[in-house]
Amino acid sequence: DVKVTQSSRYLVKRTGEKVFLECVQDMDHENMFWYRQDPGLGLRLIYFSYDVKMKEKGDIPEGYSVSREKKERFSLILESASTNQTSMYLCASSLAGAVGLTEAFFGQGTRLTVV
Amino acid sequence: AQSVSQHNHHVILSEAASLELGCNYSYGGTVNLFWYVQYPGQHLQLLLKYFSGDPLVKGIKGFEAEFIKSKFSFNLRKPSVQWSDTAEYFCALGGKLIFGQGTELSVKP
To answer: What pLDDT, on a 0 to 100 scale, did the predictor assign at position A2?
Structure first.
């Protein structure tokens, strides 16, 4: 079974803090994604990566950056957390091929609250 | 630009009723389409997918979806829902894997 593990289920951070969300997958997938999920807005793509050290912006990259130093790990960084970044963050991975062509597997999500 | 739209935000049905959830997409190229489901407290999982060929695709748990190219649609159907189908359903378009807004389905026993 594919496993996508996000380091925290719940996180509370203060405004202005630098926040790291970690995601690890164990199936040697090339593609990894970060989304945020908000009620009524569905999943919105923040960044995706198709290889180590490779990344592309999604639809809402502002205020975020990512790091992929190893194939299995994809980190989302909030440079200076703000209250409008309070959300559920989902990580996903999939096999190589055209991005989105193969099934994506999701982690359980990290619910981040910025106070 | 790619986009996906789900018009039904919250659907409430009684058990045994038939289900149809709408999904429309915007993309000029070859499309690959997915339906994902998120049961309460669980992670998203794939329900079904369309890549090419037969436009009627069958998925898990009795769900099916029909790809209609002329209407830019990929609607999800189930002839008879169960209480256990209560969940949030997401349509997604391949490429960058863009998701719609989601439809929350509540099935009353």
So the answer is: 67
